[in-house]
Design a protein that fits this description.
The protein has 152 residues and is α+β, with helices and mostly antiparallel strands. 26% of the residues lie in helices and 41% in strands. The protein has helices at 17-24, 121-151; strands spanning 5-13, 40-42, 55-62, 66-78, 82-89, 94-104, 107-117.
Length: 152
């Protein structure tokens, strides 16, 4: 049986919508919100601003497996509101990451909703239980701190 997992994060940063959107629509800022100790490298040439259909290629290090290519497509961009990055090839069987920003009384609320399916059936589920879930939480914990540092 295939299990679709969800990671959901929400945070409010004391900034305005224009500054928040300028930050998240700039693909090179992904490096600024990714933990330094993660073996992560963007290998594509990046435009100044994302657009529908933009493909971004990364190399990520996965324990035991080694370096792997991850190709994401940015789509469903709604100016100053939301976008999706969807894995086209990479370590997951399925990865769909919805990003949303909304102006609220005390700043801007950022929402990340990731739906993903592990590869390798039951072996992937074991890997998730032992490693992947903890790593994803670590990455998004770091992202929370980085967003506050760069925008708050």
């Amino acid at each position: 049986m295939t299990t679709i997992h969800e990671l959901y994060r929400e945070q409010t940063v004391s900034t305005n919508l224009d500054i928040a959107w300028d930050f998240i629509r700039t693909p090179r800022n992904l490096n600024r919100i990714t933990p330094d100790d993660m073996s992560f490298e963007i290998v594509s040439d990046l435009p100044e601003e994302m657009y529908n259909g933009l493909l971004i290629e990364y190399r990520i290090g996965i324990p035991i497996i080694g370096k792997q290519t991850w190709l994401s497509e940015l789509k469903h961009i709604r100016d100053r509101h939301s976008f999706v990055d969807e894995q086209r090839c990479g370590p997951y069987r399925f990865w769909y990451h919805y990003h949303e920003i909304t102006e609220v009384d005390n700043g801007v609320r950022f929402i990340d909703r990731v739906n993903y399916i592990m590869p390798f059936g039951p072996f992937g589920e074991i890997a998730r239980a032992l490693y992947v879930k903890k790593e994803l939480n670590k990455i998004f914990d770091y992202r929370r701190e980085a967003m506050e540092r760069h925008l708050g």
